Hints:
By secondary structure, this protein is mostly beta strands. It folds into four domains: 28-114, Immunoglobulin-like, CATH 2.60.40; 118-198, Immunoglobulin-like (Sandwich), CATH 2.60.40; 202-280, Immunoglobulin-like, CATH 2.60.40.1120; 284-376, Immunoglobulin-like. It has one helix and 32 strands. A hairpin with a 2-residue loop joins strand 10 and strand 11 (147-148). The longest helix is centred in the N-terminal third of the chain and has 11 residues, at 8-18. The radius of gyration is 32 Å and the shape is flat.
Amino acid sequence: MAARGVPIAACALLAVSCADIPTKPLALVHAAGSVTDRDGAPVAGARLGFVAQDRRASGVQPGFATTDSTGSFTVDLFESRYLVHVIAPDYSGLPRDRSFEVRVGPRHARVDYRYQGYWVRARVLDPTGAEYPDARVSAFTAMLDEFYAARFDSADLTLLLPAGTYEVYAGPRQSGTGLPGTWLHGVPVGSDTTWAIKLAGDPLTGAVTGPLGAPIAGALLSADGPVFCSVYTDATGAYRMYLPPGVYGLALRDSPGMSGIDPPDLPFLSVDGPASYDISVSGVVWTATVHLSTTGDPVPDAVVFSPRVGAYSTHPADTTDAAGVVRFLVQPGRAYTIRVPAVPGLIQERWWSPVIAGADSTFDLLVDPAGTPARGRPIP
C-alpha cells in the first residue's frame, strides 16, 4: 500500500534524483598565446603561471609556460577560469609581475597578453658628463624600508611604466667601476619621456700597497655612506672612485688581488670635494706547508682558507704551490680558523681553530689521506 498522498511512481522518481549524478569530465585544452610589449613587439623569456579558479578545477595543478623568441607559448590546461601571472624577464624594463583572468575552454583556447604603459628612456652620464651606457636603471612605485610594491629593472636603459610617481635608481651594472649609484625621488610619469641621470661625485684617488710598498693589483675597495661605490685597483695598485659629499666607511673586500690577505680595518673618511687616500696593507705573515700526515709528502694545489673568527667580510684563501707552500697576511692579535678542505681521493678535510696571529710564523699543516676520519688539531 502506498504512503498517503505519495504515489509509488513518485517515490521511484525521487529515489533516482537523490542518487549521485556523474560529473562531466573537464576538457583538456591545448592553449596557445603570446606576450607582447605596448607596441606589439614580442617578449621572449616571459614566464606564465595559470592557477585554476573554478571549484570543479580546484584540485588541478597550475600550468606553466615560457615564451619563445617570437613571444609565443603553448600550454595544456583543463577547461576553467584562470588567474594568469606574467613574470617579465630580468632587466627587461617591463613590470616584473602582472596578472589577469581569462577563461580557457574548447572554444577559447587563445591567451594573449599585451603590456601597457609609457616608454621611459634613460641617458646615464658619468661624473665627467660623458654618456655611460654600461648602467642599469630601476624604478619603484613605492619604497618602505626593504619592501618594494612594484619594481622595474632595465639593463638597456628603457622602461615601460604605468602612469604614476616613482623612486628611481641608476648605477653601474657591475661592481668595481668606481662610479656611484644615485637615487631620484618623486619622479612623475604620464607620457613617453627621456630621463637624463648623472652619477655625481668628486674623485677620491690613491694607491693600495702591501708589505715593503709593493702595489696590490686587483684589490676591491668599497666606500659605504650616502651612496655605495667600489673600485678595483689597476696594475700599479692605483684606484679612482667618485663620491658625493659625506662620511664613508672604507673596506678592502675579497677579490682576486687580495688572495691570502686579511686586510686591516680601515677608518671612516669624510669626503667633501676631491681627495686622496693611500692604503698600506700590513700584518703578520704566515708561511705554511701542507703535508700528508702519513708520508710527509707536500700537497700541491690544495686550497687553504684562513677566515678571521667572528668576522663575516674577510675570508682569506689561497692555493699551495708545487712545494705545498701557502702564505697568508693576517692581522696581529686576531684569531683565525685555518681549514684545508677535502680533495676527493687525496686528502680528508682538516681544520685548526683558534689560531692567534702573533709574530711572523712558519709551520706545517698535516692532513690525513682520503679514507681516514676528519679531525682538527692545534697548530704545533
